[in-house]
């Protein structure tokens, strides 16, 4: 009995010492700063960021660690916000290296982690991107299988000049261009089969011609574009399987937008009533995720989609776009599972509800939309 009492007293003393040590460390003014966790709290039509913890502990773990026969499945865990979510495209994370901050979606809300040093930020982002890549494609970024899957696209997207191609463009007062009389035509051999149905113009290395389910890769050159001889089509998601799982052998898109520094394509599909947005990885020629245009649990078909600003396709982590249904213009935020962020509140012109078909962003706050025989100017209020 005496030994039991002594052991209990010793355990109590140890706990008390630990509490006092932690309190003393927290009270020190020169204590090393920790990782801060913020949550975005909606307030009416806007909202604000609230700090949840000044010493958050984010980490990653393999949910299948104890199941040797299963592939790794990496999850992100942040104890301070009770966050435990799979590391994949559903995070919709946006990295800000200058601020040492990453914003992401989880638990039907928006969160942000701010790191005290550049080293801690880089370490977290490296592990996050590695785990998201593995969960999406089923293998590591540096594995031999990654080299095999890239195929012809390895030299296009991962060569020594790839980073320079995505760097901000400098505007020269005297651009180095050939004079009008020096321009030469480059003939591209005609291809048999499905005719060209659309052109997706890139500002970096490539432009794409869409022929049904097939995309032809065109290289951007000084005098226009030239055929690279490469073509591809996207592999859809397998229903009921994880992201990146192979599905039916063909996917025919409708409207296509370049995104994420032109490494992704966001696509509508008439086969799915234009109620879903498909995110496709250009390098791997795979559809990696889907997002539904939905408001109050009701799917809303989109007649057309467009970027909400002109540089959006060159930016990493852009998660908003404009969508047009037959009656209204909406601004969608793909980080918000509940749908619409803004709805167009006014239109000038004679457009009739139920007949809007196409749109084109023409200014920062205004958009041109077209019905059967009319063009209107619409503004997001």
How would a crystallographer describe the biggest sheet?
7 strands, antiparallel
The order of strands across the largest sheet is 19-20-21-22-25-24-23
What is the N-to-C order of secondary-structure elements (H for helix, E for strand)? HEEEEEEEEHHHHEEEEEEEEEEEEEEEEE
Radius of gyration, in angstroms, nearest whole number: 26 Å
Detailed description of the structure:
The chain has a 7-stranded antiparallel β-sheet, with no helix packed on it. The chain has a 5-stranded antiparallel β-sheet with strand order 2-1-8-7-6, with no helix packed on it. A 4-stranded antiparallel β-sheet has the order 9-10-11-12, with no helix packed on it. The protein is an alpha+beta fold. It has helices at 2-27, 118-137, 144-150, 154-157, 162-165; strands spanning 35-43, 46-56, 58-62, 74-78, 83-86, 94-96, 101-106, 109-114, 198-200, 206-211, 214-221, 224-232, 256-259, 264-267, 276-281, 286-292, 294-295, 298-299, 304-306, 320-324, 329-333, 340-348, 358-361, 366-370, 375-380.
């Amino acid at each position: 009995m005496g030994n039991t009492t002594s052991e209990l007293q010793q355990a109590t003393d140890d706990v008390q010492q630990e509490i006092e040590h932690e309190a003393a460390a927290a009270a020190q003014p020169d204590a090393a700063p920790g990782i801060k966790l913020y949550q975005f709290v909606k307030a009416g039509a806007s909202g604000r960021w609230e700090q949840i913890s000044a010493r958050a502990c984010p980490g990653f773990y393999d949910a299948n660690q104890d199941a040797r026969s299963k592939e790794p499945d990496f999850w992100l865990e942040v104890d301070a916000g009770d966050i435990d979510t799979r590391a994949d495209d559903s995070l919709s994370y946006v990295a800000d290296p200058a601020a040492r901050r990453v914003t992401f979606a989880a638990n039907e809300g928006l969160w942000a982690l701010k790191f005290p040093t550049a080293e801690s930020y880089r370490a977290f982002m490296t592990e996050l991107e590695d785990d998201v890549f593995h969960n999406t494609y089923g293998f590591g970024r540096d594995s031999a299988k990654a080299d095999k899957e890239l195929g012809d696209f390895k030299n296009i997207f991962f060569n020594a000049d790839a980073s320079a191609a995505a760097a901000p463009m400098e505007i020269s007062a005297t651009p180095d261009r050939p004079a009008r009389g020096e321009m030469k035509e480059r003939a591209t051999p005609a291809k048999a089969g499905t005719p060209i149905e659309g052109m997706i113009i890139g500002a970096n290395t490539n432009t794409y011609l869409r022929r049904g389910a097939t995309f032809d890769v065109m290289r951007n050159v000084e005098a226009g574009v030239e055929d690279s001889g490469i073509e591809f089509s996207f592999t859809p998601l397998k229903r009921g399987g994880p992201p990146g799982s192979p599905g039916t052998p063909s996917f025919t898109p409708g409207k296509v937008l370049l995104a994420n520094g032109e490494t992704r394509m966001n696509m509508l599909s008439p086969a799915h009533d234009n109620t879903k947005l498909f995110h496709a990885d250009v390098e791997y020629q795979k559809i990696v995720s889907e997002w539904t245009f939905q408001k109050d649990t009701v799917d809303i078909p989109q007649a057309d989609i467009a970027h909400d600003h002109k540089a959006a396709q060159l930016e990493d982590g852009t998660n908003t776009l404009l969508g047009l249904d037959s009656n209204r213009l909406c601004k969608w935020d793909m980080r918000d599972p509940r749908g619409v962020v803004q709805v167009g509140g006014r239109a000038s012109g004679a457009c009739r509800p139920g007949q809007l078909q196409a749109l084109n962003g023409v200014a920062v706050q205004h958009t041109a939309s077209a019905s059967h025989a009319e063009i209107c100017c619409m503004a997001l209020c």
